[in-house]
Design brief:
globular; Metallo-beta-lactamase, Chain A; alpha/beta; 6-stranded mixed β-sheet; 321 residues
Length: 321
């Protein structure tokens, strides 16, 4: 597995959150003078890792000015409440539709248990702490926040989730994309070219909106994307092509699922098999062999992507009566 860039830009650090195993999810620490910001935080289990990296940078939890999340899915924001407790001066920045779930996480917890199962949920995420409402701010779409030498500009980016935004960083000319620019694991960067593919996890996948979001990311002029899964992606045009190809493939699987007449577990198996077949073709094309870790990643993403597709199929059926 190729190494990831620990410091892709001076004062900007990639932190492996050791989610499930190393190389699956990261957060970013941004240092601006005597202050710091965390972008993404993963889960409660990652909070000690983040605080250790902050200490290595010569700063304390009291120096953290911002805790920013791209969206409220727990592999991005599950540790927000605990991290905020450790960082008493930090302002939490989130999309307005995400902010309400940080303040009142009950529905988020229940929906996550439905996706992962009670036992796996507890193992992965532990107890989700609420964030005090007075500490949460929601930048508007297109809003800019001046912080030292840099400007953070926020872009609302639907497609993966309705409560998602991306953050453009003027100083590094990079953009923190959460899940809006796909999954680019290090394991799949050892063939001819790195592989990037979309995430269609429950519950808000919309292929058309996701493609529009890819164009929005390109329009910022950023020359790199800071992926949460995982690390820095430097060829945005190549990434955009792969994302749109993958989004078309996911939409085709969704349409096939609608036509299949299947429901429940048989529909999930149908979609999972087709998502897995697509991902395996992409990996095989690049000459990447599947070891135990690669198999686990493909298996996990195939199922959770399929769950998002099935959710859309079943919601459409209910809507159409």
């Amino acid at each position: 597995m190729p190494p990831y860039e620990k410091e892709p830009f001076p004062g900007l650090f990639t932190i492996d959150c050791d989610y499930i195993f190393p190389g699956v999810a990261c957060a970013y620490l941004v240092v601006e003078g005597k202050e710091a910001a965390f972008i993404e935080n993963n889960t409660n289990h990652s909070v000690p890792i983040l605080l250790e990296e902050l200490n290595k940078a010569g700063l304390t939890p009291e120096d953290v000015k911002y805790i920013i999340i791209t969206h409220v899915h727990l592999d991005h924001a599950g540790g927000t409440g605990l991290l905020a407790k450790h960082c008493p001066n930090a302002i939490i920045l989130a999309h307005p539709k995400a902010a309400k779930h940080l303040i009142h996480p009950e529905r988020l917890i229940q929906s996550s248990k439905a996706v992962y199962g009670e036992e796996n949920y507890k193992k992965l995420y532990g107890e989700i702490l609420p964030v005090p409402a007075e500490r949460v701010k929601s930048p508007a779409d297109g809003e800019e926040i001046q912080w030292g030498k840099r400007i953070f500009k926020f872009y609302y980016t639907k497609g993966h989730a309705n409560h998602h935004f991306c953050i453009y960083d003027s100083l590094s000319n990079g953009i923190f994309t959460g899940d809006s620019f796909g999954l680019g694991y290090r394991e799949f960067a050892v063939g001819k070219n790195p592989i990037l593919y979309p995430s269609t996890t429950p519950t808000d996948f919309d292929a058309e909106e996701a493609m529009s979001t890819v164009d929005t990311i390109l329009s910022t002029g950023a020359d790199k994307a800071y992926l949460t899964h995982f690390g820095v992606w430097k060829d945005l045009k190549s990434g955009a092509r792969q994302m749109k190809q993958g989004l078309h493939a996911m939409q085709n699987i969704l349409s096939s699922g609608e036509r299949s007449g299947l429901e429940g577990e048989p529909l999930l198996e149908f979609c999972t098999g087709r998502v897995r077949a697509y991902l395996e073709r992409e990996v095989s094309t690049q000459g990447i062999s599947l070891g135990e870790k690669e198999e686990m990643l493909l298996g996990f993403d195939s199922k959770i992507n399929a769950q998002g597709l099935v959710f859309q199929i079943e919601r459409k059926k209910r809507k159409n009566g």
